[in-house]
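Work package 3, deliverable 3.1, input record:
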Amino acid sequence: MTHATLPDTHPQGPKRNWWHRNQIAISPWLFLAPGMIFFAFYVIFPIFQSFQISTLRWDGLGAPEFIGLQNYEELYYDDAFYTSLRNNLIWLVLYLLAIPAGLFIALFLNQTVTGIRLYKSLFFFPFVISQVVVGLVFTWFYDPTFGLLNIILGWVGLGPINVLGDPTYVTYGIIAAGLWPQTAYCMILYLTGLNGVNPEQIEAGRLDNAKGWKMLWYIIIPQLKPATFIAFVVTIIGALRSFDLISIMTNGGPFGESRVLSFYMFEVALSEYGFRMGYGAAIAVVLFLIMLCFIAYFLWSMYQEDKAR
Amino acid sequence: MFPTPVEKTPRAWQLTYQSLLPVALVLWLLPLISIMVFSIKPDADFTTGNYWGWPSSFEGLTNYGKVFFESDMPRYLLNSVFITVPTVVGCIILSSMTGFALGIYRFKANLWIFFMFVAGNFVPFQILMVPVRDLTLDMGLYNTKTGLVLFHIAFQTGFCTLFMRNFIRALPYELIEAARVEGVAEWRIFWYVVLPLMKPALAAMAVLIFTFIWNDYFWAVVLTQGVESQPVTAGITSFNAQYRAAYHLMSAGSIVAALPPVAMFFLMQKHFIAGLTLGAVK
């Protein structure tokens, strides 16, 4: 802060001086103010509000009634809640398949043949399309009467199966649809990562007779760590936020077997099943607490990295 | 380069690879190709069960004409534009300032504020649903484009701040110090020194936010209803309800709805990928 000790060269008066001396300390807050106010108002504050609403019995219109932890107690005995929770776990685990799948496609496309750039963009294509359209397309793909899936199964003498109408397959069917754009995303992350791999290390590995899998495992994958971290973050968040596909493809059915927490809370709070804001908020709180474990881990990793710089 | 470049591999594998590429692409995009085919088929093909065969006639123009002139589709598309564009502008303004503040200045709360933005951005947004809907209702903005835009700006500011701050951190700090020694006011440093250097980041962010917001479905359903304010992602569901089992029209409608971000992606590909993969390489 050299400004403060410099001789006063501005004779405009004490007010200007004060500003001049404190400019560097105050400026960041002025720059931050609009963004922080918006963010606090629409994101931070509502998070705490949700906690509070989850202790109420409230239809969104009338007077709310404080009922303490009754919503959570009801949740504890709610079978639909456990179905949603179980599906959330399935989503979390299977959605991570997008990471190896993306790496596989990236390795396949990491070449310099003619037209490869166009191939890369076309492979990335599914990520750009709205999940609503992806859901629609896959609904037709699975359709028991004319869907391509059953036609293909028919060739090998299987089927027909009604993927979206069958409680055992439905969640897996929706996850497969979700994996399509997510894999594309992971692929593009790895393609960029592969670009930055140190060629000298590869050559050194080749001299040491490292080939194929060994090369990939010991030399390439460690260098792709930043890409893997981002792929992991976006995939986890994507899995826990999944809503669009379920809403479009099955609307939670059959018999609520494809619900996840985010969908179930929407159903409870804002649909024909009644406007139970408090109960919905309680479900959201549970989802938030699950996410919080991951957020803490992500922030911790970022903090470590920031410290290292 | 890994894997070994095909040029250095045996001829047989080179040929296999070259022929494998298009096959893999077709398989990968099969679901999309199928709706493209659907969208140019005549109505009759679906009633006679000719789903996957050669179209009995090409009705592309009629189908797309119907979508554009006989449905609410143009209205929804316009709504999407009026929601997406102000959001992009708002996010850029807010986050270039927050990113500047967190990237340039060193003060105690810096990292904590940054983490607040990042954490807020990772939050499953369902937890915001009930309070934000209530808030929007109270402000009289429920079922308006403004209500949706304001929320989107606020929520995306988290992601954009992360993005901007990391970008600004990578700029040479000497530039700012030099300007300060010259006695340049802080807001002038922001406007004349840093902002011009941020152009590539701003472009990348603009395309990304455009795509995210255009494709948003959840908030469109929560905060709006009806043709006067709903964006195209929500509109397509009512469009589909209207044309139930009219697969040719539903496909044409879906393609129209998906097109703007796709066009954006192909036009601004470099920026788009740069934005998405920020941080994927050290």
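The radius of gyration of chain B is 24 Å.
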